[in-house]
Each structure stands twice: as structure tokens, then as C-alpha cells.
Amino acid sequence: MSAPVRAADVAVGTELPERSYPVTRADLVRYAGASGDFNPIHWNDRTATDVGLPGVIAHGMLTMALAARAVTAWTGDPAALVEYHVRFGRPVVVPDDDAGATVTVRGKVGAVGDGGRVRVDLTVTSGGEKVLSLARATVQLA
């Protein structure tokens, strides 16, 4: 992580560094073990396509966590994240190959409030498609 960002150093429109996170089938297995979510749509192509998905998809909460990681990497302090909201727009399809998928997170300061509260508006994509909608994080900066 970088040095903590100070409220005095940000303004509306400040952009966060773009972050890209690879997601492979092996990552899905590890996440399933950690979360206890062993739904076969996250590891079995036949099951995923039988329910109308284009293939195996990443866990929504994993996608959400990757976006939060981009915010906490920017703040330099994971405890700075005080509020976080997303809507799941599209699934992250994870091919069965060595490359997998990539989740890209871009952020911009949308509001600066009193006492160091800052709203960060996020754009989260995979394969050129927006996967999280209305993604917003509120952070408390020093």
C-alpha cells in the first residue's frame, strides 16, 4: 500500500490510479474455500450454461472485494473505508484457460465532505463491459 492519502490533497474529480486484477479459475476455487460458496456456477461450465450463463462466473462478492481493494490501496489504510455500495450489473465470465478474466477498477472523487469524508465513484469493468453499477465508496481521510 501507498502512503495514506490526506483529505487536504483531494478534490472533486481527483482520479484514483487504475487497477487491474486477474481472476482465474484457481482464484475461484480459493475464494469458494474461503467464503464457503461452492455454487457450481463458479466452477462448472455445464451447470453455468444450463442456467443461462455464458460460462463459469466469478463470485459477485469477489468482484465487489476487488473494487474495494482498489479504494483501500489508494487510501493507504483499509480502515478508511467506512461505507460501500454496489449493484451487480453483469457477471465476470472466467474462461477455463491460463489467462482467465481481468477486472479493471477506475475511480474518481465525486464529493468531499466535512471532516475528511470523501465519496469515490467507481467504474468496474471486465471484458470491456461494466460489471458493477452505482459503485460508490465513502472513505474517511485524515
TrEMBL record:
Name used for this protein in its record: MaoC family dehydratase
Segments forming a coiled coil: none
InterPro entries reported for this sequence: Fatty_acid_synthase, HotDog_dom_sf, MaoC-like_dom
GO cellular component annotations of the record: fatty acid synthase complex
Molecular functions (GO terms): fatty acid synthase activity
Species annotation: Geodermatophilus sabuli
Similarity comment: family membership: Belongs to the enoyl-CoA hydratase/isomerase family.
One Gene Ontology biological process: fatty acid biosynthetic process
Family annotation (Gene3D superfamilies): Hotdog Thioesterase
Stored Pfam families: MaoC_dehydratas
Start and end residues of each MaoC-like domain: 18-108
